[in-house]
Design a protein that fits this description.
heterodimer, A: mainly alpha, B: 177 residues
Chain lengths: 445, 177
Amino acid sequence: MYTFSNRLKLASIILIILGVVGWGYSYMNAHNTTVEDVKVMLAEEASHGGGHGDAAESHDAGDEHQADATAHGDADAHNGDDHAEHVMHQIHNRPYSALYVAAFFFMMIALGTLAFYAIQYASQAGWSPVLFRVMEAITYYLLPGGLIVIAIALWAGDHLFIWMDPEVVAHDKIIQGKSGFLNKTGFIIRAFIFLGGWSLYRYFSRKFSIAQDTADDNRNFKKNFRISAGFLVFYIYTESMMSWDWIMSVDPHWFSTLFGWYVFASMFVSGITTIAMITIYLKSRGYLEFVNDSHLHDLAKYMFGFSIFWTYLWFSQFMLIWYANIPEEVTYFITRIEHYKLPFFGMLVMNFVFPFLVLMNSDYKRIPWFVVCAGIVILAGHYIDVFNMIMPATVGDRWFIGLPEISAILLFMGLFILIVFYALSKAPLKVKRNPFIKESEYFHY
Amino acid sequence: MESSRVIQAIYTDDDVLMSAVKTVKAERHHIEEIYTPFPVHGLDKAMGLAPTKIAITSFMYGCLGLTVAIVMMNFIMIQDWPQNIGGKPSFSYIENMPAFVPIMFEMTVFFAAHLMVITFYLRSRMWPFKNAENPDPRTTDDHFLMEIAVHGNEQDLERLLAQTGAVEINIIEKEAH
C-alpha cells in the first residue's frame, strides 16, 4: 500500500494556492483593462517602431498582413477604435484561455492514459499489469478534470468560443451553416455523453480490477477485457468529436479531418510519459519493487514511438494544407507561423527532435533520470501543442507564457498530483490476482 | 601452418543448446561458433559475445541518406530546373521543404536499411559466390551445431559435451582459411 506523504500533499496544495492567487491576479488585471488603456498601449508600441500596432496603422504591409487579416476574419477592421477594442478583447480572453489550456492539458493526460489502459486489457498484454494501479490512479483525474474543462468552457463562453456569441453568429454565414452542430445545447449534451461514457468505463474497470485482487477465478478479468474492447470503440469516436468540440471549434471557420487523430497522438504520448514519470517517482520512494528495467524500457519505447507518431500526424495535417494553399484552410498555419513562430517550431523540436535523438539509444531508455528529463520536455512540448491550438484563435498575437499561463499550469498540476496520489493510496500497488501478473513480473527484454 | 582441430557437438533442441552453452562457458572453454537454423533468443549473451554495433552504423547511414536527399532535391528542384511548387514560386529550399520531407524520410530509411543489411553481410563474411562455411547442412534444417577448439583436451571435452545432451560429437581437422 502506498501512503500519500504529507510533504507531497502539502506541496500540491501549495501549488494549487499559488496557481489560484497568480491566476486570480492576472484575471483581475486583464479584466480592468479598458479601451483607453489599450489605446495608450498601442500608441506606445507604435512609437517604439514596429510591432503589431505599427503594422495595423500602415495599411501597405505585404501579403503577409493580408493573410493575417483574413485569419482574423470578418468582424475586425484594422483601424482606430475597432482595432483597440479588438485588442482589448484579446487581452480579456487571455486568462480564460490560459486556464482552459492548462485544464485541458491535464485532462488529456488522464484520458490518454485511460485509452492506453484499455488497450492493455483489450490486447491482454502480458508485460504491463504491474503498472495497472499507476494507470488507474492517473485516470481517476479524468472525471474531475473533465468536469472542470466543461465548466471553464461554459463559463468562458464567447471568450473562447466565438460561436457561442449570438451577435457573431448573426453576421456569420459559415457559423450559421454549422449551427446545427455548433450550438450551446449540443455542446453540453455531447460533453456529458463523452465524459459520462469515459467515466463509466473507468468506474467499472477499476471496480473489476479491485474485485479481481481477491477473486478465485478470472471472471472479473474477462469482464474487464470485454468492456475495454467496447470502450475503445466508443473512445475513438468520442475522442475525435471531443477534439472538434473542445478545441477545433475555437476556430469555427477552419476544419481538418485529421484533427481528432492529431489530438489523440498528443494525449497518448503525454499519458504514457506521465505513467513512466509517476512509476519512476514511486520506484525511487521504494514502492513498486516488482517493476524492473524492462518495464521502464518498454514505456520509454512507447514515448519514443508515439513522439514520432505525433510528428507524423502533425506533418500530415500541415503538409496537405500547406501544399493545397486554400485561403480558408491555410490561414490556420499562417497565423501560427506569423505570430507564434517560437512555440510553433519550438514544439517540433521538443516533441520530435529531442525525444528522437535522446531516446533512440536502447541503453538510455533504462536510465530513470534520462527518461524523466525526456519526459519533462515531452510534456512541456505537448502543453505548447495545446497552447498553439487554442491561443491563436482567442488572443491572437497578444500571447505570452507569463503569469496567467504558468499559474494555471501550477493550479492544475497541484490538483492533478493531489487527486492521482490520493487514488494511488486507495488500493494495493500490485494487481494480485491478475492472470498475467506473473508474466508481467518476470518480464524481461 | 598448423591445421586446427575442432570438436563439433550437435543438438536437436534450442533449450538444450542454451543450457549446454552455459555449461561449456562455466567450464571455461572457448566456443568458436554456433550454427543454428533460426535465431535463438539470448544466445549471444550466453556465449558472451560483445554487443552489436550495427545500430550505430544504421544511424550513420540514416544521416547519409538524409544528406543525399537534401542535396539531391536541392539540385533537382531548386538549382538545375527551378520548379514552382504548390503555387509558391519561392525557389528556396527551406521554404519548399515541406514538399521534400517525404523524400528526406524515405531516403533516410532506404539508406539505413539497405546499407545496414550490406554491412551485416560483409561483417559476417558473406559475399556472392562464396562457399558456405556451414559445416553440416542439417543446421539449416533442424539441428544446432556448437564448435569448440581442441587443445589436447579431447577426452574432457567429449565427456562434457555428452553430458550436456549432444546427440552427435565429431572431431574435425579444419584447414585454416
